[in-house]
């Protein structure tokens, strides 16, 4: 048993010595107010950390997970999305990539909302190298399949979404 444990520790240390692990993600905060009598402003938040591993210069695997909600009885949610990233264009400053993956999100609260969202698809993106270890990362759009279960109603969607409301920004730190 000791030999097995020691072997696993040595293997983990060898992998970690050459590891290309990165961590990052994004945060968001916003406020909205309906222009009506007695309307209150609502502050919403989003926290989406990410962790990944660079297999080589072109391929990486990772997972993003997160929480979102609001301060006044609005909808809340959590989700997880593992992915594989292929970087198909490298330059000195900018890398262009596409993430292929699956995702699950659960939304609840608000006006009796109970929603499950399953996705399978691709998200194109850019990574701008700020330093040797720090990247500014953005994802623009989604192409793929989405299955929503809203209370007892099911919705299936397939398509390409490249509009300005489907842009994500974040920072990744590579060890």
TrEMBL record:
Signal peptide coordinates: 1-19
Pfam families named in the record: OMP_b-brl
SUPFAM superfamilies per the UniProt record, alphabetical: OMPA-like (SSF56925)
Keywords annotated in UniProt: Signal
Claim: Transport is one of the keywords in the record: no
Membrane spanning stretches: none
InterPro entries: Beta-barrel_OMP (IPR027385), OMP/PagP_B-barrel (IPR011250)
Domain Outer membrane protein beta-barrel, chain residue ranges per copy: 6-175
Record's protein name: Porin family protein
Source organism (scientific name): Xylanibacter caecicola
């Amino acid at each position: 048993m000791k030999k097995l444990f020691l072997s696993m520790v040595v293997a983990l240390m060898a992998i970690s010595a050459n590891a290309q692990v990165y961590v990052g993600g994004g945060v968001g905060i916003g406020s909205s107010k309906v222009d009506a009598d007695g309307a209150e402003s609502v502050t919403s938040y989003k926290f989406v950390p990410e962790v990944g591993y660079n297999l080589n210069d072109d391929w990486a695997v990772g997972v993003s997970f997160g929480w979102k909600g609001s301060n006044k009885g609005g909808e809340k949610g959590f989700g997880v999305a593992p992915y594989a990233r292929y970087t198909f264009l490298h330059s000195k400053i900018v890398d262009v990539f596409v993430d292929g993956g699956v995702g699950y999100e659960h939304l609840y609260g608000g006006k009796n909302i109970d929603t499950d969202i399953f996705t399978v698809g691709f998200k194109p993106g850019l990574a701008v190298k700020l330093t040797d270890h720090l990247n500014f990362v953005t994802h623009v759009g989604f192409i793929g399949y989405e299955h929503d279960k809203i209370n007892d109603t099911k919705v299936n969607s397939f398509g390409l979404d490249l509009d300005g409301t489907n842009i994500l920004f974040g920072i990744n730190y590579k060890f």
